[in-house]
Amino acid sequence: DSIWQMRAAAFEGQRRAILVTFTDLTAVEEANQIRRDFVANVSHELRTPLTAIMGFIETLRGPARDDPGVRGRFLDIMEREANRMVQLVDGLLSLSRVEVDERVRPTTPVDLKALAEETIAALEPLAAQGNNTVTLHAEPGNWIVPGDIGQLHQVLRNLVQNALKYGGPDKNVVIALHPAQFDVALRATAVRIDVQDEGPGIEAHHIPRLTERFYRVDAHRARTVGGSGLGLAIVKHIVNRHRGRLAISSTPEKGSTFSVLLPQE
Ligand code: ADP
User: How far is CA 17 from each of CA 4, 10, 20, rounded to the nearest angstrom?
Assistant: First the structure.
């Protein structure tokens, strides 16, 4: 108070204006917190497999040196852990690439039906492993959207991979293409791609958090099925870059549907 009075007195009689500025630091602080969490998460995710690999090296040097059976098993585990790290680094690179050009909307015409067929063919071996089928439902129609073919391929691949990974064995995964309709949220005419599984579903309170980096419903289970926890974060960023939206709905015990809406014009 006294400072204000002194200042007011100093300016008295002089035609001066006082400019008071307030800066809201909440958003800056939030961004800093997100960055700190991110670095902590990445470090943890990389450290876990590294610690495991180092532990196995130690054992291979010592007690397991002359036991070919143990050696083979340990090498398998080390390979799996190293693969996990490769997946994580690949995921981080994809994420940062998408973030860099998120402001630039891609415009190359992409045929979503052809892309879905390619995805199914590419994931055939993974589907066969779990005795799953992946089927495409699409009426004749216009499935062309402006986009980045590589990134849209990644969206479909991540969603179908998740449906296979989390859906469980002997189940059917459906990719359904729905013709363009006006979408109120997007205020645009958008094609919808649904990826549906018949898996255990996801409890409602997890759904809003699934696209956070490293968020996993069941960390232990997710570790055994593999994955980096970045897949849906990447999907969300790619869909945002295409000015579309991702909607997730799920019924426990029945299955989940991940819907991607992409504006057609
Ligand atoms: P990741 O699969 O590498 O763990 P994602 O970002 O792709 O990471 O998925 C985040 C989490 O969302 C998964 O760990 C899993 O718990 C949950 N999830 C994703 N897709 C499905 C699905 N189709 N059914 C059930 N849970 C799912």
Answer: 13, 12, 10
Best residue for ligand 1 mutational test, from 207, 210, 213, 260 (most atoms within 8 Å of Cβ): 210
* Each residue's pLDDT tens digit, 95-111: 998 888 888 999 999 99
Tell me what pLDDT residue 30 has. 85
The preferred substitution site among 84, 166, 172, 235 for testing ligand 1, maximizing ligand atoms within 8 Å of CB, is: 166
Relative to beta strand 255-263, strand 245-251 is antiparallel
Residue 187 burial (CB count, 10 A) = 9
So what's the ipTM on this one?
0.98
User: pTM above 0.90?
Assistant: no
Spatial separation of the C-alpha atoms in residues 126 and 224, rounded to whole Å: 15
CA of 225 to the centre of ligand 1 (A): 10
The reported pLDDT for the residue numbered 7 is 60
pLDDT-derived band at 3, boundaries 50, 70, 90: low
Cβ < 6 A, ligand 1 pocket:
158, 162-163, 166, 197, 199, 202, 210, 215-218, 222, 227-233, 256
